[in-house]
Every structure is written in C-alpha cells, then in structure tokens.
Amino acid sequence: MALELRPNCECCDRDLPPAAEAYICSFECTWCPDCATGVLKGVCPNCGGELVRRPVRPADKLATNPASTARVLKSEPCSPRAA
C-alpha cells in the first residue's frame, strides 16, 4: 500500500503538493515544515509519534499512484509543544 501523500498541513492547512517538503508520523498525519519543526517540535500531537520527512514520490509514479485529495485539518488549533 502506498503512502496517501495528503495534500495539506493538518495544523495550518498549507498546501503540500506531492513534491513539497512535508513531515509525517507513522499514521501519515501530515505537517508542513514550519509546523512540524517549530510548533510541534518534531512530535505528532495526534499520536505522540516522531515526525519524519515525507518521501517524495517520483513524478512518473504519480500517474498510476496519485496523491490523496482528501484534506485533513485538526478541529482545534495546534499548540506549541513545550521544549
């Protein structure tokens, strides 16, 4: 099963196209670099897991394995993590 490659940051709703730098946890919660490293300090607020850089799917593979179009957004604002 391929990664979903979700289209947005769950915290700020910034667009994250498949080739954009993004961060995910093991459940594929998806965050932009600013939220992942700044606000969330590398820890997923949903599961407590580590945030790692999302791999980039080669453009030729997107034709047969497209990125998700389903936007996911937290219902509550992301809070800065304590250091």
Structure description:
This is DUF1272 domain-containing protein. The chain has helices at about 35-40, 60, and strands at about 25, 30, 50-55. The protein has about 80 residues and is largely without helices or strands. The protein has a domain at about 1-55: Ribbon (Cysteine Rich Protein). A three-stranded antiparallel sheet has the order 2-1-3. The N and C termini lie far apart (about 35 Å).
Which keywords apply here?
2 helices; 13% helix; Cysteine Rich Protein; little secondary structure; 83 residues; three-stranded antiparallel sheet; single chain
Write a compact overview of the structure shown.
This is DUF1272 domain-containing protein. Helix content is 13%, strand content 7%.
What is the helical fraction, as a range of percent? 10-25%
Rg over CA atoms, rounded to whole Å, is 12 Å
What general form does the structure show? elongated
* Uncertain residue segments: none
Give the N-terminus to C-terminus distance in angstroms: 35 Å
Which CATH class of one domain is shown?
Mainly Beta
Which architecture of one domain per CATH?
Answer: Ribbon
Organism: Pleomorphomonas carboxyditropha
Pfam families: DUF1272
Protein name: DUF1272 domain-containing protein
Helix/strand layout:
Layout: E1 23-24, E2 30-31, H1 33-39, E3 52-53, H2 59-62
Antiparallel strand pairs: 1-2, 1-3
Pfam families: DUF1272
Organism: Pleomorphomonas carboxyditropha
Protein name: DUF1272 domain-containing protein
